[in-house]
Amino acid sequence: MMQRIFNSQSYALGAALLIAAAGSIAPVSAQAKKDAQKQSAWVKLCEKAPVVEAAKDGKKAKVEKEICLTHHERLDGNTGMVLVSAAVRKVAGQDKQSLMVMVPLGMAIPAGVRAAVYTPEQWARAAKNEKVEDKDLKPFALRYSLCHQAGCTAETEATSELITSLKKGGGLMVLAMNAQTQPIGFPIPLDGFTAAYDGKPIDNKAYAKARGQLMAQIRERQKKAFDAYQAKKKAEGKKKK
């Protein structure tokens, strides 16, 4: 059976940005948090960076261009580890775009990654652990291109057809094989993808600040849990005496 990570103890960074901004003004209600998570699973981040391109004389040269990522990142609420991230990468002046997905380390590299866009109806069924027929899906493959400390990234071309599917879809289901060749499903909601993709980029500094605040909250939760565990052990030790 395929494992799926539909985990309530995880955070989408787009939602975290709105929650952090609202939280700096006043306490945020549970409903506001739910609304933020529904509306802002994706954000657009842009920056200028050097890109290697072929010049008119045929030689390769570095040119500074704006690179935009329409990006989703989901963190484990207990450890801060990236469970899964996805981004559509667009370089100014280039027609070709890329879909990049990062999964945790420990996946089988030769197997690559497969993914499928679910309709809103299919996504609602998957969230309830109801079966979605394979014949109703159009899976596509992504090839691993890079591994680092945070995980491994797989890529494929984001064609206009795929972009349209992402805009209309309810979610993107990513499937990777672990070292034991067991399929692991990584669900990525598409709430807010169209608005982020078509809209203006958010402030990079504000996003980095929100991410830092979220990581600080996670570290504080870890510390409290560890302190509670130590106190419990100490109390049990006294009882035995």
Could you give the topology of this structure?
Blueprint: E1 3-4, E2 10-12, H1 13-23, H2 30-39, E3 43-54, E4 60-76, E5 82-91, E6 98-103, E7 113-118, H3 120-127, E8 140-148, E9 151-157, H4 160-168, E10 171-177, E11 183-189, H5 193-198, H6 204-240
Parallel strand pairs: 1-11
Antiparallel strand pairs: 2-4, 3-4, 4-5, 5-6, 6-9, 7-8, 7-10, 8-9, 10-11
Helix pairs in contact: 1-2, 1-6
Verbal overview:
Helices cover 34% and strands 36% of the residues. It has one domain (6-48, 62-228): Sandwich (Immunoglobulin-like), CATH 2.60.40. The chain has six helices and eleven strands. Strands 1, 2, 3, 4, 5, 6, 7, 8, 9, 10 and 11 form an eleven-stranded mixed beta sheet that branches.
Number of helices: 6
Number of DSSP strand runs: 11
- What ranges have pLDDT less than 50 throughout 5 or more consecutive residues? 5-10, 18-29, 31-39
**Helix and strand sequence:** EEHHEEEEEHEEHEEHH
State the CATH topology: Immunoglobulin-like
Mean of all residue-level pLDDT scores: 82
Do you know the CATH architecture?
Sandwich
What is the top-level CATH class? Mainly Beta
Backbone structural class: alpha+beta
How much of the residues is beta strand, in percent? 35-45%
Rg on CA atoms, Å: 20 Å
Distance between the termini: 48 Å
> What coarse outline follows from CA principal-axis ratios?
globular
